[in-house]
Each structure stands twice: as C-alpha cells, then as structure tokens.
Amino acid sequence: MTTPAPTDIPVYVSAYNPQDRDRQVRIVRHDGATITEPCSSQNQLEALVQQHRPGTDLNDPAQVHWADHPGEWSGI
Question: Are strands 64-66 and 11-13 parallel, antiparallel or unpaired?
C-alpha cells in the first residue's frame, strides 16, 4: 500500500510555529475547489472542515495531513 502525497490529501494542515497564532489549512472541497484558511484551534479546524468538506474523518491520515505536530496549536 502506498501513502498518498500530502498534496493529494483533501485536508492539509501547515507546519506548527509557536510564534504564529494560526496554522494555514488547505481543503479540497468535494466539488474540486480549493480553499486555504487560517485556523487557531482544533475547534476552529473541525468547524472549517465540516463546512467545506463534510464527512471528513480528522483522525484518518488518508484524509488529513499534518505537516508536523498533529493537533498542536500555539494558543497565542
């Protein structure tokens, strides 16, 4: 089984930087449109994904790719 490239995964969460309030989240919607939005918390990520790609399992690495530090937010 091959692992899909991060660019092929529907939800991509950018790298963690403790000096930044937000992590950029790229979502490929079911209609193929791509959006990028800043998120500052897990709750905000869940709401954004639910809005733009409902039914996505945030715990499935085939659907969500974290560049690093999964589930961590700066809390600034």
Answer: parallel
User: Is beta strand 23-28 parallel, antiparallel or unpaired with respect to 11-13?
Assistant: antiparallel
Mean pLDDT over the full length of the chain: 92
Q: What is the residue extent of each domain of the chain?
A: 7-59
User: Tell me, what's the pLDDT at 75?
Assistant: 77
Extract the tokens encoding 60: 């499935």
Which burial class, exposed, middle or buried, applies to 60 when counting CB atoms under 10 A from its CB (0-12, 13-18, 19+)?
Answer: exposed
As a whole number, mean pLDDT of residues 25-40 equals 97
Total-model pTM: 0.89
Q: Where are the alpha helices (DSSP H) in the chain?
A: 42-52
